[in-house]
Amino acid sequence: MRAPEPAARADVLQVADRGDAVPEETVVRDCLQQEPPRLPPWLGYDAVGSQLFEQITELPTYYLTRVERDLLERHSPEMAELLACGRLAELGSGSAKKTRLLLESCLRLRETTYLPIDVDRSMLLSSGAALCSELDDLEVTGLWGRYEAGLDWLRTHPGGPLAVVFLGSSFGNTTREERDGLLGEIARSLGPGESFLVSADLDKSREALETCYNDPAGHSAFADFRLNYLTQLNHRYGADFVLDDFVPEARYNADTSTVEGRLRARTDQEVPIPGLGITLRLPRGQFLNVGYSAKFDDRQLAREAGAHGFHLRAQWKDPEALYGLFLFRRD
Description:
Layout: E1 9-14, H1 24-32, H2 47-57, H3 63-83, E2 87-91, H4 99-109, E3 113-118, H5 121-134, E4 139-144, H6 147-156, E5 162-166, H7 176-189, E6 195-201, H8 206-212, H9 221-237, E7 246-253, E8 258-265, E9 269-273, E10 278-282, E11 287-294, H10 298-306, E12 310-317, E13 323-330
Parallel strand pairs: 1-4, 2-3, 2-5, 3-4, 5-6
Antiparallel strand pairs: 6-13, 7-8, 8-11, 9-10, 12-13
Helix pairs in contact: 2-9, 3-4, 6-7
């Protein structure tokens, strides 16, 4: 009698930052003391925030997810062949609905282990279970923690050839300095010849971007997602923000080619945050930044990655050049 095939499995491991890593509270405090004050992107991705972001991807005016899915549907076999790896780690994996297309192509070529990294444990559990039920022979080990912790785990748990994937244009949700640090972490996690696949939204008109990043009439997903950052400050650090005292909005900053997600104060704000040992003061009309979304051109992206030993191996864009996926190889 033929032995049964081994069942696909999905596990979730909690990964901790290294001892010399900056504590979460320090990161949030430092961001709030900048001018203008801001919050790190991962703070908004609890279980509620993750579900709200899924709603954002379904908005009729939010083109990024649809264009990226189309690129993956058409080109994932070529991407999988060029990645040439048996382990695929994804930063900020979320529901991994689009990643499934790439994983399916990888599995046609070789045994594949998927290593999603996300701060939302419930999303890792649900997405891992869904993928294993849909894709025969896929193994999933979810890494529950921040990007830095997940990448450090990869460095201390070597295995077969590895690729790091960063979809959803989330690479742009950082400042230039933060991207530089993250690229360094990714480069240290990959060996020579291993690959980094990243998606990026390409620069375009103010009107197109502000339409994309604000709620259309009859919807509130963006507003609810941005206000959830205040809810997290209340829950995690004992603050007492009143959500109705802020107006969620997005504005394009042409000087930095960045869409800024904002919470604009309706009245003068002075809110103690006991868990951080600070008080946030915002005059009426000033804003708290709850999201950057940098827009790129090819040369800029190649320069930033090239500074960390990556060279561009392949790229795929939609016909209107709204969006692209870029595959870099580690020198």
